[in-house]
Amino acid sequence: MSEQVPRALVSRRSLLRMGGGLAATTALLGAGAMSAGPASAAITAMPVSKRFDLTKPSYDEFRGKILHESHHVMQGFAFDNQNVRIFIVNARNGGTGDDLCITQVNFSGQIQGSMHLNNAGHGVSIGVEPVGADSYIWMECDSDGPTGDGRGTALARFKFVNGGTPSVKKFLTGSDTITCATDPINKRIAVRRKEGGRMFISVYPLASAAAGDFSAPLAHFPQPALADEPVTFQGYTIFGQYLYTVDGTGHANPADIDSYLTCIDMNTGKVKSRALTKAGESLVFREPEGLGIYRSLAGETRLYLGFGSRSSMDDPNRYANLFYKNVLID
């Protein structure tokens, strides 16, 4: 999943400051933007927030848990903060590669239910929207190819029903390599997709997205390149004004760990911090897989890191592992 991301950055807020106003903003969004209509005149910056200190230690949530589909590594995951649920996506056993399974687990990693969405994509990142006692899943769908290299071309929203068939509502059809992530605290959704061959991030109020309104993004900017590009992109999430990404590959030797977390200010489109993470470094063939945000019942806000692993290099089973960071700074 390595992607070469261009270094040139232009933030929407910078354009507004330069006096371009709505015309400049419209030019930035362009024909390939995430908008279902014309750009809104009422575009504001993301509210200022704290960010996670990526250099602080990580703590275990759970290790070594098998998902409903046992032979494929975990991919993206997300939290229903309101109903205290975790949802993790991975490929189906015996599927085409782009057939995905969403497994609901509790905070001990025990399976609570599962649901399938075939010909969906890769599952790099997903989102969850609580509606009362129900959890609605947001994820890619309509894969561009029936293999493990398939990527979604639209966003799906559907109610999670254990063992049920998804009743899917689709958005932003005709996209290229589209995924999403949700901020459960601030109730926003980030959409990541290619526009003109580059990866862009757009952020919307979750309620607006659920209503099918993508006309007024809160943020829209190209994903910045990193000094050590190319890297293997493995997931993302958002909290407040910041986007967090994880990259790296799987290794049998802990000395070869190359898993990095990056914090990006969505008001500037620039990298704020980047740090190596050794969370779960003792795992067998540890591979970074996804990020998520959760606020505990005690009020602690956490950045969760997912890693796939094996019990041995010969074991066909793949295991899910979650860790978190909890130090916020200005």
UniProtKB/TrEMBL annotation:
Protein name: Teichoic acid biosynthesis protein C
Taxonomic lineage of the native organism: Bacteria, Bacillati, Actinomycetota, Actinomycetes, Pseudonocardiales
Family annotation (InterPro entries): P68_RBP_TagC-like_beta-prop, TAT_signal
Residue span, P68 RBP/TagC-like beta-propeller domain: 73-310
Entry keywords, A to Z: Signal
Signal peptide: 1-41
One Pfam family it belongs to: Phage_RBD_prop
Presence of the UniProt keyword Signal in the record: yes
Superkingdom: Bacteria
